[in-house]
Amino acid sequence: MARTKGQRGFTLIELLIAITLMAVLAGLSWRGLDSLMRSRDITQAQVDKTAVLQTVLAQWQADLNAVQPVPSITDAGVQWDGRTLRITRRATAWRADGADAGLWVVAWTQRNNQWLRWQSAPLQTRAALQQAWANAERWGQNASADDAAFETALIPLEAWQITYFRGNAWTNPLSSAGNTDTSSSASGQGVLPDAIRLQIDLPASTGVRGRITLDWVRPNFSNTKT
């Protein structure tokens, strides 16, 4: 007589063990995936913060590259009072009719551990430039609501410092050798420095903690010192 082999299935214990192992593996896989996603988010946030910092520093360089001295307002085109750096620069926008928009007055300062930039509307007349220059100074000292409407908050900042390069040496802009005030034009000091050094101290929230030094060099500067 032919004997039929009986088919043996899984026991209850074996099923429980298999389910337990699958649950453990699923939990480990989820933890690994969660960790990977967290790492990706942290890396992306770091990249975004670095991109913001690079954009801000590029704007700093662009303002200085476009500096335009205006006699009787600022013969140097830049002026540092120990708190705010003011710049007269060419505007990059164009009028609707295609004509040159004129000049901007821009200013940089630190307030409440924040780096700020102020920019006027495009200016065409000397009177408008003079007024914007005064407004930028007032904004750096005690900003009114009207002045604050022209400012942009950039990045958190712990401290910053400006140094001028003149006569083959780095000097304090507020010293007699580095003063760019128009009142000193007669003594030959009201001219654009050969280079401007920016030092900023950044908190960890910017993604790059520590000090960054950035030198801007006047395009037509030639150092003949040996």
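That was protein one. Protein two is written in the same sequence-then-structure order:
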Amino acid sequence: MKKNLLPGAVFLVLLFCAFGRQAPLRRFELKGYAQGTTYSIVYYATDSLVSLNQTDSLLQRFDRSVSLYQPNSLICRFNRSGKGIRIDETFRMLINHALQISRATAGLVDPTVKPLVDAWGFGVVKATHEPDKEEVESLLRNVGAGKIALKGNFLHKTNPGVQLDLNGIAQGYSVDLLALLLERHHIHNYLVELGGELRVKGRKLGNEPFKVGIEGISGDDLDPAPMRKVIEPGDGAITTSGNYRKHHAAGGKQISHLMNPLTGYPVQNEMISVTVYAKDAITADGYDNGFMAMGLKRTLSFLSKRKDMGAYIVYRRPDGLIADTATTFFNKYQ
């Protein structure tokens, strides 16, 4: 006897359609305060899968590891120690990357730069005077990536005076960790920003790309001007280092917060700012200060050999006028 299969077939089709239909993506935004600045996250998902409590908790754990403003953080405990301490995974990742970048930049990026940062007035406790030549030479005895060594989870130092400052790379890594939190919740369209450091993936609603504005300099001073350039970065990270925001006056001249770990003195060259594009923010943030110290020619030469990173550079020409340039890799995203 022939059976009627139509009702069952209709049921299967309806079941397939019910499970195959996806809820539309919606826009969610989180805003908070961390690391002495603000952060913002925009993501697109079917529901509010990540909350402000989750992001705040992540950033608080991060600070307990590497914040110089928390006396009981691991990095402060290391700086007070005589021989070193056992560190956590966040600290270990940052040290490993910082040491790799230090080698790649011939020591112009150095995690042990804290004594110089403090002495020139940019530390947690402000210095009362500008260091003289003898003081700088004394400080340099405690500066150098070779004065620390990571063995397992124990970070060693050669002498008690060695102190770490990971601010040149830590903010970028915290942006990466926020992006990883989103990814773990299957969110693949987002923009994460913390203190101006960015991580972008996917697109906005309507398949519209994310656009990022890069601040410029106007005239002959160092006051920020309206956006100098707008790019569509695709999937990746963008960070900026510059001399025009963090500096103070001494002896009638502007002193940069960026230190040259090889000389012991603040960076002074034609560089005004450098915006770096890389696959992740720990890389972009880790290199941007190094490029500021390298100067224009060395930076362009260095990046000409890299296929995974690019930069947009604002600099002062020998005639005093402000100019800009971008590497081929960076120009792809304009």
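Residues 167-184 form the longest helix (18 residues). Keep this in mind for the problem set.
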